[in-house]
Amino acid sequence: MIHSVRSNNPKFKPVVFHSGFNVVLADRKRGSDTEEKRTRNGAGKTTLVEIIHFCLGSQVTRNSVFKNENLKGWSFILEIDVRGKAYCIERFTDCPGKLYIDGELSSLDFDCKYDQIKHRYYVSPGIFNKVMLTEFYGIEMVDNSQQYLPTFRELISYAVRKNVEGYKSAFEFFSRQKASSVQACNAYFLNLSMEYAAQFQSLKEKKKGIDDYKHAAQSGVIGAFSLNIGELSTEVITRQNDVDALKEQLEAFQIHPQYEEISKDANDLTERIHSCTNMLILRQQLLERYETSYSDETPELPIADIEKIYSEAGILFRDSILQPLSDVINFHKTIVANRREYLHSEIISLRKEIDKLNEQIENLSSQRAELMKVLETHGALAEYVLIQDRYAKAKQLLEDAKKRLESAEYIEDSKSRLKIESQELLLKSRQDYNERIQTREQAISLFKANTEFLYPEAGTLTIDLKESGYSFGVDIKSSRSQGVNYMKVFCYDMVLAELGHSKAHYPDFLVHDSTIFDGVDERQVARALMLAQLKSVELGFQYICLINSDMVPYQEFDDEFTKQFNDSIVLRISDEQEDGGLLGIRF
Fold this sequence. Notes:
The chain has 15 helices and 13 strands. It is α+β, with helices and mostly antiparallel strands. The protein folds into two domains: 2-192 and 436-574, Rossmann fold, CATH 3.40.50.300; 259-378. The strands form three sheets. Strands 2-1-4-5-6-8-7 form a seven-stranded antiparallel sheet. α6 packs antiparallel against α11 (381-435), α7 packs antiparallel against α11 and α8 packs antiparallel against α10. The radius of gyration is 53 Å and the shape is rod-shaped.
């Protein structure tokens, strides 16, 4: 049970609780500027709930009340029983990472550290929450491996609901709670199999992962590639052939140390061969012209032909000039003879030069052939490295293609596989579900009895098992108002308190803020408070109710319960004065 809530600041109004039924009453003044200007911590009911969570290891967010400058230097102290032994837990707003604990620490499996300045032992919120999961609820967290087990912070949030969010649904402590958390927590509370609840959630995550991957692949988020198995198989075969070819090329590759020098020599020889060839072509063309000219040169020049030419020109040669013309002809023959001799000598010279060029080309070609033979059978180191790079890239592309093929094949048959797993899990969990019929009947009967205490017609608690896992529902047919929704939460919480009473590990307290009575008919508020008082006394658990004075339906109480209610008021706070609230200050 919770014994007290205190602070190191004297302005704070300490509250001491007792076993059974406890009331923190907040007086509110209506119809004045006070209500309109009331600040966040006006009376302090909500702040008291947050202080309990603060001392029980809750996360301190940026917008938390404990970050407010007005609370700088404050600490809050929660005196609480853990497994029948009293402990004081103190947490400072300036240093929320440390929870100072006084009490029999040897009974708790705490990895405590010692504060040399304060001379006290403390633990981190993480370690505290892990140990409290075992101490309060009997759940062992081994190496943080149980991914879907409920945490201490999740479970305790049902025993101490906070804010409006905590009262919207009986099975949730806030509206954005993960489905896995809702299923795991309520499976624990209702004595169902948490193991099967975790397996159902694991299958959900697998299905979601497959769908997300397939969608990402199709949308191009993780790269543009096909999930078609046929196309990917062809790509794998093609890339495997590329890898094999490059591997074979590397294995046959021989590196020559003078490869670059030999390659340069071969290029020089090629240029010389080209130069000789060009020269040879020119010499052959010149030879052909000389040989043609040589054959066309004729030394004989008939006189009759010359006479005919002159005759046609109308000139008559006299006999006296015939002798000199003969001399001319002889001169001509001499010139022709000289030219033929020149051509003949040039032809001989050209033929020799051509033979020499052919011989030179042959020698150069032979040298180049030898060099080329070396180049054909060997390679340069740079070329070898280049082939290695191509081989490495080809192997990477092959591995990528194989992985995509594996993914495509997995996606192709994964849904069928998961469906089989889901059906197998459903069969096993259904058998377990049926074996726990007495547990379910007890919870359903308790909820029915609680709602019958409040309303003329009993409500229903539904605990079902579907392909997606456990399914929960509550219903009260009297009305669809928000007030009735809050009473669903109230009746369910009373069921959990009663079921928890039979567990070896379970917190023996239940805290409800005034939110749970908002919009509820006065008669049902009265009946709910009476039920809480009866159950807490009967079962021996602690019920703490934080309620506004204008919500208390005294007219619906009988004299006996009126006295019991007033005797149960452990703290009375107000939003009228500056120092009337829980903290004793306004900000």
